[in-house]
Design goal:
- This protein has ten helices and 22 strands.
- Helix 6 runs antiparallel to helix 7 and helix 8 runs parallel beside helix 10.
- The strands form seven sheets. An eight-stranded mixed β-sheet has the order 5-4-3-1-6-10-11-13, sandwiched between helices. Strands 17-18-19-21 form a four-stranded mixed β-sheet, covered by helices on one side.
- It is α/β, with parallel strands linked by helices and 485 residues long.
- The chain has two domains: 388 residues, no CATH class; 46 residues.
Length: 485
């Protein structure tokens, strides 16, 4: 009988954490339908987690920081500021820092461009304070680093549901529960166990938009991620680090509400699914092997955990980190700023008219349209000039596992395609790393249907499929590729 092998990575790892909850009163509106501007409370704290990993033999020049923030989106310039803060205090190069967000919409739209909005005067100082916390956290994580083994496991959770739903009554696609649509339910867990005992941290990689809380919520919140961490850590006794997967077409089965109890329930659901996966992991450095028959009332086939061979453990210490750029063509019908500005002015006039008439529902809808135009203009201002978007891809081959980091919001096909192609190998897919742009990268079949994600996508049909092929080819032969920058 073949032994049961558990994928593992050998490295040195350390973590550090800080509370980065913004002040009450800060600009908070992240939903067009919201009628409030400022946050009036805190549901659960927002956190910053820093994970430092380096080859087992040491070598800070090859180590990598993974910085996880409870935010919705960060602009490229903000990512660069925070990355520079990590580098300043640690001596790392920018290519050694992967900065990602949980994507909780209830953190608010904390962007420096919103400084003139109500509560916007608090944004700049707040973001500066987050960078200063990272200055403290980076060297702490490095000092905490110790030899460890990462054990990988898989579970299932049906929290996430497909969210490209067809509304038969109004004959349009809406962003909401599509109970019949495909939804990746994979929970990938990674337990980092220090040599000699003790857990450094547990990583939960899952794809689901943190959009439990929507326009009726006025409190700062990490959404379901908060209860996930709290529940998980109460049982595991170690920090729980959350990594957002490819969730462009996935959201909570129950979402878009104002009740924080629903977000907590969603978080507990994911936590217990992840904990169940964690409990199935073996001791580090072992495999589960058949030992032979034992005669009892029946002839029992006995198994036990046995140490891995030295050569296997050496292969699990493999460490190859690569970065490169893939050019994604912009869509041919990319909107023109002047046309968006004209539409924005029309919606502003309609909003004023509706308010004057006392039609608050119409005014709210018009205000949402104005907000959508504002975001469209911001996207167009920030994208690189030319015909293509240069997408920076980072790939880590760490022992038996592959970790992939990409900016933007990607459809679940990114992770499901790669995991199907490399079955049995842990593929950790982390989106929104290094910034939100290029925004959504939907599958080619999504275009032309009027689905929200496609309607605001900046890149052309076929980019999602090209990205899968590009990453798959690098997984196959990436160790011979030269790092790009």
């Amino acid at each position: 009988m073949n032994p049961i092998e558990t994928p593992q990575t050998r490295c040195r790892a350390g973590t550090a954490r800080a509370d980065i909850t913004p002040p009450v009163g800060i600009y908070h509106r992240a939903w067009g339908a919201a009628t409030h501007d400022r946050a009036n409370g805190v549901h659960r704290p927002l956190l910053a987690d820093v994970l430092w990993m380096e080859p087992l033999a040491g070598g800070h020049a090859k180590g990598q920081f993974l910085v996880m923030l409870d935010h919705c989106i960060l602009e490229k310039a903000e990512v660069e500021r925070m990355t520079a803060a990590v580098c300043r205090s640690s001596g790392a190069a920018p290519a050694q820092v992967q900065l990602t967000v949980s994507h909780t919409h209830a953190a608010g739209l904390v962007l420096r461009g919103r400084a003139t909005y109500p509560g916007g005067e608090l944004i700049g100082p707040y973001l500066d304070s987050v960078a200063e916390r990272l200055v403290e956290l980076a060297p702490r994580a490095m000092r905490d680093a110790r030899p460890a083994t990462i054990l990988y496991g898989w579970g299932r959770c049906n929290l996430a549901a497909h969210r490209d739903a067809w509304d038969e009554r109004t004959r349009q696609f809406v962003c909401g529960l599509d109970s019949a649509g495909p939804a990746d339910d994979t929970v990938l867990v990674a337990r980092i166990v220090a040599d000699g005992g003790g857990v450094v941290a547990d990583v939960v990689n899952y794809a689901c938009h943190p959009t439990t809380l929507a326009w009726d919520n006025t409190a700062i919140s990490p959404d379901y991620v908060g209860a996930l961490r709290e529940t998980f850590e109460r049982h595991s006794g170690a920090p729980c680090l959350f990594l957002q997967g490819a969730s462009g077409d996935l959201g909570p089965r129950e979402g878009f509400v104002g009740d924080p109890a629903v977000a907590d329930r969603n978080g507990r659901q994911l936590a217990f699914a992840a904990l169940a996966s964690l409990e199935s992991l073996p001791p580090p450095g072992t495999r589960y092997a058949y030992q032979g028959p034992t005669i009892s009332g029946a002839v029992i086939g006995t198994w036990r955990h046995e140490p891995l061979a030295h050569g296997v453990r050496e292969s699990q210490a493999r460490w190859h980190c690569r970065q490169w750029t893939l050019d994604l063509p912009y869509r041919a019908d990319l909107p023109v700023a002047e046309e968006i500005q004209r539409q924005q002015a029309n919606w502003q006039a309609e909003e004023a008219r509706a308010r004057a008439e006392g039609n608050l529902v119409a005014a709210r809808d018009c205000r949402a349209r104005v907000e959508r135009s504002t975001r469209s203009l911001a996207r167009l201002r920030e994208i690189p000039p030319g015909d293509v978007f240069p997408l920076r891809i980072t790939l880590w081959r760490l022992g038996d596992a592959v970790w992939i980091f990409v900016p933007g919001e990607h459809y679940q096909a990114l992770q499901t395609s790669l995991r199907a192609r490399f079955a049995g190998r842990p593929i950790v897919v982390v989106t929104l790393t290094g910034g939100w742009l290029p925004g959504y990268v939907p599958t080619a079949a999504t275009y032309g249907k009027g689905i929200y994600q496609e309607s605001i996508a900046l890149v052309a049909p076929g980019c999602a499929e090209a990205l899968v092929e590009e990453i798959a080819s690098r997984i196959d032969c990436g160790e011979n590729e030269r790092a790009d920058g």
